[in-house]
Write a structure and sequence with these properties.
heterodimer, A: about 140 residues, mainly alpha, about 70% helix, B: Four Helix Bundle (Hemerythrin (Met), subunit A), 3 domains, 30 helices
Chain lengths: ~140, ~750
């Protein structure tokens, strides 16, 4: 079943969903959002795409196999958890760096925390798409 | 018959020369401890491993452990040299070498470990490596069965032993074997002594293959010959003997110890010697003589008599030397001729002179002929039997029977293949030649050592037997001397009787074999019992699986919800939650809207007959729940709930819409039953929630997170800060579960897609 309306609308909606998912991921530390939610939104985008265009199209759009994305995400999360060990901290402790900090402004913050959240994002995205695609294809 | 086809000769690879180098290095290291130990000292090294469970990697070297360590590493050099040549060019030679070296390290850990839990870990490691080595020819069903059987039997014993260790540690408060030595009286007087003894003996008897746990050892001969020589004669199967020796100062000295070891040891020794005569495969003959030796060692550990213990110490070394040599000889013969059948081999003396000499020397030691060390060993066994007050006659009778049969077995293994007639030899299709030198070093060296120690028993006495006896009896002065000529005494007369009987048995052995063969068919076999046990276990598992796993989703869910209801009800009763005054807050308009939406969704799901409508109804309920989170200002949870709900609807539709249309609704009786369960669970959950809310909420954690979130973690969204910073390790665990679950589901779905029914 292919709906021309759904296919057309999907193009715009999926793009918006994906941008929105990254937005939700990045703002998560201070506002509602984060890796879990971002990953769910991103997965919803691809699920919608799969419903409209079929899983083979969705797989092509995703470029990498979803199970690989999940595995990479797990690796990123694990690595970011191990980084504090290099500074003598406990694993998964938060380490922050404020780039260009001045007395007036705290500068641009980066930390292993955001890397961890990106890992979570990738695991959630990859795991859900693994399930949905497999279900769509095999049943 | 050959378990190994010869391969085109190639150069030596790392898999060939690395293992003997490792073994040789270890042997040299252990040799350096020899002067200290021979001088009456002990050594101890250790560091903490899991201090909270008092598991330490501590190593203790005394006469007992050093003797074992020298045997393991020394014979290891020979066996590894041998297998480097024996398996040269085998596609899995590297894997074999890895297993063999791993085994050696595990075995060394076993005999050197001072901590009981450390000993257990190494014990199980030897079991696992033995499993891998027996099943090395994994394409053969026979090998796989033998490997699994050995794993199960010795693994079971290992667990029993662990339980015994834990009880000992509970009573004495120490895990260190070196500290236990002085605590024998505490254990012997404890009411748990009987239990400890049974558990420890189960461990020792399964590992050292005592009747009725012996059946795995002859089957283990499915392994390549170097493995049989190393694990299943010289080292691993002596693990049980080692355990008994190690526990000797702590547990021996009671009637229970004396009689259990005497009976099991004697039965094993005699049974195995008779079975050895019955075999036609030379490797099987040797396997049963190994059983006989193990039985004898157990038998003599029963007694606290210094002669008996000295006999154990001597015979332990004697047996390892000649048995490893003979196994390697059989390996050479098999390698050259392609058969190990005693009825067909003959006349190899001319083609394989070096092997013949090695076989002859080793067999003479095995037969207990002077001036070989085997003679001294046998004399000491008789002396030990004569000196033991209680079980003496059993010891002498069992030793006499076993030694005479052993004499005959030595003849079968070493005389017939080399001196007998070559008429029935199968044609191997190539000229029979001597094995290459790395295969000959082991048999020659080991059998020559048997002669050397016999001529100079003092060497063995000072370095090995006296320290070993001291380790068991606590006093080097109790060790007896090793003499080649101890004058005309009862032991010597018994030896002469042994020789006479042995020669008679050898001459009659073909007739005996036929008689045993005829009788054997009518007797039950332990192997058959084992198969029956496994089959029954399988049937029980199937019955139990069918009972618990009905495969009907309806029943699973019913079970889950009934358990939830029971759990909640019992929790409420336990907390004495009465139906007291429940403060129902005055509902606002938005609350009523959420309630109406959720209620409508629920009603639709229950009433509709259309599957898609039911799924949509469930989705509505989910959105209602998300709205509840929004109303009570938990946006993060609400967003997650909404997204998850959406994805669940999609997933559910994908799966459910492809199911066949239900012909009719479930029966009214069933619906009523389900309705009752649903109403009960709902009521109980509501009551629980009201009860929880009516208590003051402990806000300590929430307060901490609210205060610490921004200053410590630079984040204002507390939920996210908790997820990625304060509780990041939990989150990592959760995402791992998510990833693994997805992969598992993928594997299951793919399997179905391929047509395999799961």
């Amino acid at each position: 079943m292919k709906s021309i309306i759904l296919t057309t609308a999907t193009r715009i909606i999926v793009a918006l969903l994906l941008v929105f998912s990254v937005y939700m991921l990045l703002r998560g530390h201070n506002e509602p959002g984060g890796g879990f939610i971002g990953g769910l939104i991103g997965a919803s985008g691809f699920v919608l795409y799969a419903i409209a265009n079929g899983t083979s199209e969705a797989r092509r759009a995703l470029r990498a196999a979803p199970e690989q994305i999940a595995a990479v995400g797990l690796g990123v999360a694990a690595l970011s958890g191990l980084v504090p060990g290099l500074f003598g901290n406990a694993a998964f402790a938060g380490k922050w760096l404020f780039l260009g900090a001045t007395p007036d402004s705290k500068g641009f913050p980066i930390s292993n925390i955001i890397a961890f959240d990106i890992g979570v994002y990738l695991v959630v995205l990859g795991a859900i798409l693994t399930l949905v695609f497999a279900l769509e294809e095999e049943i | 018959m050959a378990d190994h086809a010869p391969h085109p000769s190639q150069g030596w690879t790392a898999a060939g020369y690395v293992p003997p180098v490792i073994a040789a290095a270890l042997f040299v290291i252990f040799l350096q401890a020899l002067p200290t130990i021979a001088g009456g000292g002990t050594l101890r090294y250790g560091f903490s491993w899991v201090p909270s469970l008092s598991v330490d990697l501590s190593f203790f070297i005394d006469g007992l452990s050093l003797t074992f360590a020298l045997l393991i590493s020394g014979i290891g050099v020979m066996v590894m040299l041998f297998s480097g040549s024996y398996l040269k060019g085998h596609p899995q030679h590297g894997r074999f070498s890895l297993y063999l070296v791993s085994f050696m390290l595990a075995m060394l850990g076993l005999v050197l470990s001072d901590n009981m839990l450390g000993l257990f870990v190494f014990w199980e490691l030897t079991t696992i490596t033995s499993y891998l080595l027996i099943g090395f020819s994994h394409a053969s069903e026979n090998s796989r069965r033998a490997a699994l059987q050995a794993l199960f039997v010795t693994g079971f014993g290992g667990l029993a032993m662990l339980a015994g260790f834990l009880i000992i540690a509970g009573i004495t408060g120490t895990m260190e074997l070196s500290e236990l030595r002085g605590m024998g009286d505490i254990l012997r007087e404890n009411s748990m002594y009987g239990g400890i003894l049974v558990l420890i003996l189960l461990g020792a008897f399964t590992k050292s293959a005592q009747v009725p746990f012996h059946f795995w050892l002859p089957n283990a001969m499915a392994a390549p010959t170097p493995v049989s020589a190393y694990l299943h004669s010289a080292t691993m199967v002596k693990g049980g003997v080692y355990l008994l020796a190690r526990m000797h100062p702590t547990l021996s000295g009671t009637d229970a110890w004396l009689w259990s070891l005497t009976i099991f040891g004697a039965v094993t020794a005699v049974f195995a010697s008779i079975m050895a005569i019955k075999q036609t495969d030379l490797k099987q003959t040797l396997a049963y003589t190994t059983l006989m030796a193990l039985g004898t060692l157990v038998l003599f550990l029963a007694s606290p008599n210094p002669y008996a213990i000295t006999a154990v110490a001597t015979f332990l070394v004697v047996h390892s030397l000649y048995k490893a040599a003979l196994f390697l000889v059989i390996g050479c013969v098999d390698h050259a001729t392609g058969t190990r059948d005693a009825r067909r081999l003959g006349g190899l003396m001319r083609q394989m002179p070096v092997t013949t000499v090695a076989a002859g020397l080793a067999a003479l030691s095995m037969a207990g002929v002077p001036p070989f060390i085997g003679f001294i060993g046998k004399e000491l066994l008789y002396k030990g039997g004569l000196e033991s007050p209680n079980a003496g006659p059993i010891l002498i009778a069992a030793t006499l029977a076993a030694s005479a049969l052993m004499f005959a077995a030595a003849g079968i293994v070493a005389l017939r293949p080399f001196w007998g007639s070559a008429d029935r030899m199968p044609d191997p299709g190539r000229p029979i030649t001597e094995a290459p030198w790395p295969m000959l070093v082991g048999p020659v060296l080991l059998s020559v050592l048997g002669l050397l120690f016999g001529l100079a028993p003092h060497m063995l006495e000072v370095n090995v037997t006296t320290p070993l006896v001291a380790a068991l009896l606590g006093d080097p002065a109790k060790a007896k001397h090793l003499h080649l000529w101890a004058g005309v005494n009862a032991a010597l007369i018994l030896s002469l009787i042994t020789f006479a009987l042995g020669i008679l048995l050898y001459l009659l052995h073909t007739r005996l074999r036929d008689a045993l063969e005829a009788a054997g068919d009518r007797l039950f076999t332990f192997d058959g019992l084992w198969d029956g046990f496994l089959a029954r276990l399988g049937r029980f598992a199937r019955w139990q699986g069918g009972l618990i796993q009905s495969g009907i989703l309806n029943r699973y869910l019913t079970t889950v919800f009934i358990v939830i209801a029971l759990g909640l009800a019992s929790a409420m009763i336990h907390a004495r939650m009465g139906p007291g005054p429940i403060a129902v807050p005055k509902p606002e308009f938005k609350h009523l809207v959420v309630f109406a939406l959720t209620f409508a969704g629920t009603a639709l799901t229950i009433i509709t007959t259309s599957r898609i409508a039911a799924i949509a109804g469930l989705g509505v309920v989910g959105i209602g729940v998300a709205l509840i989170f929004i109303v009570f200002s938990a946006p993060d949870v609400a967003i997650t709930q909404l997204l998850v709900e959406m994805l669940v609807v999609v997933l559910f539709s994908v799966a459910a819409l492809r199911l066949p249309v239900l012909p009719r609704r479930s029966a009214p009786r069933e619906r009523v039953f389900h309705g009752i369960i649903a109403a009960t669970v709902g009521t109980l959950v509501t009551l629980t929630l009201l009860g929880v809310v009516s208590e003051p909420i402990d806000r300590r954690l929430s307060d901490f997170f609210e205060i610490a979130s921004y200053p410590d973690a630079y984040g204002r969204n507390i939920v996210n800060v908790i997820l990625v910073d304060f509780r990041a390790f939990d989150t990592f665990g959760e995402v791992s579960v998510v990833a693994v679950a997805a992969l598992a589901a993928l594997a299951l779905l793919r399997q179905r897609g391929k047509g395999g029914r799961s």
